[in-house]
Design goal:
The structure is a single chain. By secondary structure, the chain is of the alpha+beta class. It has a domain of 145 residues. The protein is built from 2 helices and 7 strands. The strands form 2 sheets. Strands 1-7-6-3-4 form a 5-stranded mixed sheet, with no helix packed on it. Strands 2-5 form a two-stranded antiparallel sheet. β6 and β7 form a beta hairpin. The longest helix has 37 residues.
């Protein structure tokens, strides 16, 4: 009767080493480069569903086979056991299954021609991870660069494939955590510890200003009506009776002689 092989406690710890040896057997070369976030001066560097990386310029070596460079996005737990031989677009690397049944996915595939070295003036040298929204639930596009499903953290690396064979890869990035929306109840009404007192004071000042303004308007109305009423006594002139006198002795007088 065959005896079953007992599980050894060190078997689990040997798995990453075996995967590394498998990658070496495929000729996979690890480059001394770590993906990094773009410059902090860039607006929207990290959002609730995206982050921005620097392009891997002058990182991968020239290859006559014109390999395709992919970005791998994974949860930190998947990094030690990541299998580089799993092809992009397979169910194990589909964005639509991330991070449930697919702890990593591959996206943003391009050739080295789009990462020229050195950088040309005016070139945009960043990659926005999570910017596609149209393919989020489209199972026919497993390499979708869709919005990330949560705050993370996430780790990324670049890998170069010649056909389906991995050729070169970078190191894994440091964990990247996205922003989270702050609940409305946690946002203070005012910026200081005396917010309630400031609100009360503001209300009182607003009421006093309203009363002062109403009094000023009433005074102007009263003053205007009084002015127009007083001047009305002079607006209608009194009737003046003028008697007409005919000075008969003045008419037809001969001119005075000198």
């Amino acid at each position: 009767r065959p005896h079953s092989c007992p599980r050894h406690p060190g078997a689990r710890t040997m798995l990453p080493l075996l995967l590394l040896l498998l990658a070496t057997a495929h000729g996979l070369n690890t480059i001394r480069y770590t993906p990094t976030l773009a410059s902090s001066s860039l607006g929207g560097l990290i959002t609730a569903s995206t982050f921005t990386l620097e392009q891997p310029r002058c990182v991968f070596s020239e290859d006559p086979g014109n390999p395709v460079i992919w970005l791998v996005v994974a949860v930190p737990e998947a990094v030690p056991t990541f299998n580089d031989s799993v092809e992009p677009g397979s169910p194990e690397r589909a964005f639509q299954r991330f991070p449930g049944s697919a702890p990593a996915y591959m996206t943003l595939n391009t050739t080295l021609l789009n990462y020229p070295c050195p950088k040309r003036p005016g070139d945009i040298t960043v990659l926005r991870v999570g910017s596609e929204t149209s393919c989020t639930k489209d199972g026919t596009r497993p390499t979708c660069n869709g919005p990330l499903p949560g705050p993370g953290p996430y780790r990324v690396k670049f890998i170069s494939l010649n056909g389906s064979v991995p050729v070169e890869q970078t190191a894994w990035s440091e964990p990247i955590t996205l922003r989270t929306a702050q609940p409305l109840s946690d946002i203070p009404a005012m910026g200081s510890g005396h917010s309630a007192g400031m609100i009360t004071l503001t209300s009182i000042l607003s009421i006093l200003f309203a009363i002062l303004l109403a009094g000023l308007v009433a005074m102007l109305v009263f003053w205007g009506s009084d002015t127009y009423g007083g001047s009305s006594t002079f607006s209608k002139p009194e009737a003046v009776t003028v008697r007409r006198y005919n000075t008969h002795h003045v008419y037809d007088q001969p001119a005075a002689r000198l």
